[in-house]
Design goal:
The complex is a heterodimer of chains A (about 90) and B (about 475).
Chain A: H1 7-22, H2 43-57, H3 63-67, H4 72-87
Helix pairs in contact in A: 1-2, 1-4
Chain B: E1 5-13, H1 20-29, E2 35-36, E3 51-52, H2 67-72, H3 75-90, E4 95-99, E5 104-107, E6 115-120, H4 126-154, H5 160-170, H6 182-186, H7 190-198, E7 205-208, H8 214-228, E8 233-241, H9 248-255, H10 266-269, E9 285-294, H11 295-300, E10 307-316, H12 329-341, E11 351-353, H13 360-374, E12 379-381, H14 384-387, H15 394-408, E13 425-426, E14 437-443, E15 448-455
Parallel strand pairs in B: 6-7, 6-8, 11-12, 11-14, 12-13
Antiparallel strand pairs in B: 1-9, 1-10, 2-3, 4-5, 8-9, 10-15, 14-15
Helix pairs in contact in B: 3-7, 4-5, 8-15
Classes of the chains: A mainly alpha (about 90), B alpha/beta (about 475).
């Protein structure tokens, strides 16, 4: 499935990926959450998360882009931009 | 007093079978797994052998593997983990979640520090390395290739060059990324390590790499450790995945002329111990894991006992990296040690699960050895006649077949055996066979020979 659809759909798919990889338990996955500090991710978890996001959204995330992924919101913004690029 | 070692759990994934029950049904029904090789492999080479034994499609998430594990584990580890879970279930060993994120467990009723893991494999995670290497090498070429195609299209070029390019484009296959976990996917010891991590087991933990006898040696090492008191329980067996995306591993065996020729009928091409045999049937992979325990350990927790392991022996040919020593002197010595260690004579053995690859030379030598050592009494079959050769998993699958044959008082026939090469008691049809004492034997590239004696479990100690 390519990057497409509404913000809600993107958020739903992204939340599923984050939940599958980080298993944050009862901690809600919201845009302001920081992966390391709030969701308990270690460095290997971050690598796994990037791989899972690439797989889910059929995209390739560069190291520069990945370095900005400190919060859920940063990933959401990235996916939205990619979806818009794809649509245009 | 000698510590007795019993098998209490069995898990199998093999060509044509997702679990032990399906595998055993296939065995007794004589259902073999044979298919044409993947068509896209033919982009890379012309093959002499064109059939293989594929694994069934496995739904790994349904079998308990997480999204992260699917990205970070080589298929050899996934197969081993799924077979291990089957073995634990059949041994009635429950588990409790230890870490949800890591998808790890602690086994209940087991002393984790006294539980070992021994797993055999021929190539470990090599197929993952091949995939990563394809990405590493082909990525820049694929980009250049794409640019050339685009430019030619812009130039309006139509001709043989475009056809050649289009055909070549079909052969470009690579994963989207160079997997950042490739080191831990490739290392052969990942298989036993992943089992130890999955179930939080802290005893000895080793992956045995001795090709076609690896599964047998791994079970033998578990037997030795439990008998010696180094552990009370072990998960042991073999796991292999050989189906790389390009058929390169297949080609390695094919170019060495070890694989089965197609013949007139693919279903009849794989025929160990038959006069018209031509090589072995390459299997995509497989895994068999056993739970073995010291007897009182098994009894104390009310475990179901499948069979007893009473001896293990191994030897080395010191002859040739890819050929058996025709004199088989060190195989005979190994087998003599094996039955002696079990307190038996050759004449006590009711059943031999042979290595039985189907290659011209190996079957000839093995048939002669069986006849010379065991005579015409024991039943003989080749499990590879049904599922092909799973290399590092083969010995473990065959030990499992041996245990199931003892437990169920029957065993499978030698598939496609029409004209036997020797006057041995080959199993030709499934009947009731009161098998009490049996040998499972394996001989590997490199020259590694290994055998196990399995016996019917009785309250009294075996001989």
């Amino acid at each position: 499935m390519e990057i497409a659809g509404t913000d809600a759909l993107i958020m739903e798919r992204m939340t599923k990926v984050i939940s599958d990889v980080l298993k944050p338990g009862s901690q809600p996955i919201t845009l302001d959450k920081r992966f390391k500090e709030d969701l308990g991710a270690d460095s290997l978890d971050i690598v796994s998360l990037l791989m899972a996001l690439e797989e889910e959204f059929h995209t390739q995330i560069s190291d520069e882009e990945a370095a900005r992924f400190t919060t859920v919101g940063a990933v959401f913004d990235y996916v939205k931009v990619k979806a818009a690029q794809k649509a245009s | 007093m000698t510590r007795r070692v019993v098998i209490t759990g069995i898990g199998i994934i093999a060509p044509g079978a997702k679990d032990t029950a399906a595998f055993w049904d296939n065995c007794l029904a004589g259902r073999a797994a044979v298919s044409p090789i993947p068509p896209h492999w033919r982009h890379y080479a012309e093959f002499t052998s064109t059939i293989w034994a594929p694994l069934p499609v496995l739904d790994y998430p349904a079998l308990g593997l997480s999204r992260v594990e699917l990205m970070q584990l080589d298929p050899s580890s996934m197969l081993a983990l799924c077979a291990a879970q089957q073995a634990l279930d059949s041994a009635r060993i429950d588990r409790a979640v230890k870490n949800e994120k890591k998808n790890t467990f602690a086994l209940e009723g087991i002393n984790a520090e006294r539980t070992a893991v021994y797993c055999g494999s021929g190539i470990g995670g090599l197929t993952s390395l091949i995939a990563a290497q394809a990405n590493h090498v082909v990525s820049p070429l694929a980009k250049a290739f794409s640019l050339v195609q685009q430019q030619l299209a812009l130039d309006g070029a139509h001709g043989p060059a475009q056809t050649v390019l289009a055909d070549a484009g079909k052969s470009i296959r690579m994963p989207q990324r160079f997997n950042p976990f490739i080191v831990s996917m490739t290392m052969p010891n990942a298989i036993s390590a992943n089992i130890g991590i999955k179930y939080s087991l802290f005893g000895p933990n080793t992956t045995v790499c001795c090709a076609c006898s690896a599964g047998t040696v791994a079970i033998g090492n578990a037997f030795t450790a439990v008998r010696a008191g180094l552990a009370d329980c072990a998960l042991c067996g073999g796991a292999e995945f050989l189906g790389d995306d390009f058929g390169g591993i297949f080609r390695g065996f094919d170019i060495a002329h070890t694989l089965v020729n197609l013949g007139e009928d693919p279903a009849c091409a794989n025929r160990p111990f038959d006069k018209r045999r031509s090589g072995f049937l390459f299997a995509e992979g497989g895994a068999a894991m056993l739970v073995v325990e010291e007897l009182s350990h098994a009894r104390n927790r009310g475990a179901p006992i499948v069979a007893e392991i009473t001896a293990f022996a191994e030897s080395f040919d010191g002859h040739n990296i890819m050929m058996m020593d025709p004199s088989a002197v060190h195989i005979r010595r190994m087998l003599g040690t094996l039955v002696t260690n079990a307190g038996l004579d050759f004449s006590d053995i009711d059943y031999v699960n042979a290595h039985g690859t189907g290659t011209t030379a190996n079957d000839e030598i093995e048939a002669r050895v069986i006849l010379d050592c065991f005579g015409q009494k024991p039943l003989v079959n080749s499990t590879k006649s049904l599922i092909g050769h799973t290399i590092g998993a083969g010995g473990a699958i065959e030990a499992a077949v041996t245990a199931l044959s003892i437990k169920n008082k029957t065993t499978h026939a030698c598939k496609n055996l029409d004209e036997p090469i020797a006057d041995l008691n080959f199993v030709r049809r499934v009947e009731t066979f009161p098998i009490k004492k049996a040998v499972s034997q394996s001989f590997a590239f490199g020259g590694h020979n290994a055998g196990l004696v399995l016996e019917e479990y009785t309250e009294e100690a075996a001989a």
